[in-house]
Amino acid sequence: MMVTSFLPWDLELLHLQRLKKLDPCPAQQVPKSEAEVATKIAIDAGFRHIDAAYLYENEEEVGRAIRSKIADGTVKREDIFYTSKLWVTFLRPELIQTALERSLKKLQLDYVDLYIIHFPIAMKPGEDLLPKDEHEKSIFDTVDLCGTWEALEKCKDRGLTKSIGVSNFNRRQLEMILNKPGLKYKPVCNQVECHPYFNQRKLLNFCKSKDIVLVAYSALGTQRDKRWVDQNSPVLLDDPVLCDLAKKHKRTPALIALRYQIQRGVVVLAKSFNEKRIKENMQVFEFQLPEEDMKVLDGINRNLRYIRAEFAIGHPEYPFMEEY
Length: 324
Hints:
alpha/beta, 9 strands, 10 helices
């Protein structure tokens, strides 16, 4: 699937700018070829930050789309900001460079711009993405995340990635990395679920205090995949407050939700395979929300997490048991 990211980043520091982003994450079961088509559409529409992952199993298609747009002169490689993610079965330090090189081989790129730890829990190494025992229970692994981080630092030093970061880390886990003796590079970002129903105010404030960019996935409340999301949970884009503000500004509820995050200093990901919506998302830069509307949107926070990552529950580093 594709995610478009709003507010771009410097290659090293990921400082917020107006860079447009696309994320090919397959939360929905769709043909891999659609990731390639959607990536090309997004690049043509002006998106330059592509957020992907080993887990999504479509990096070959996304890489082909990027190379196609470079070949036809639409962009240069340095115009594209490509993010990939280290999956939980590769967190042992000795596996990390190989995992990144596998992604690069699929992409047929020399480097990624950002490589992040997808989730702070380790699972049994191997080809299974979610290894389970005969009782259908997740098979966990024990890994020192500081050792994992040191291996990421080496990947950066070797030029395989320009920047390194994390995803789904809570405050304690971020502090563990930040306080690591001999830290060479701190995480440039923390990618987490964040939307008006789960605005992550405390985590956002903490990240800002450490000059870590907060990146919002599920910024529109997820696509409600039955494998990951409780179907009884409220639909964010049907929220009456969001809909009223959309009417007020003559925009869609999705654009209001995206604009809210941008004005909070959050890099926001918006997935879509739909050409009309991909292009519509670019309108997020055409308007602003006044302070009173921002306060109204702050008020609809429910601390509602759609993505609970149940496969990881029970691991000592499961990040969602703490307040933030």
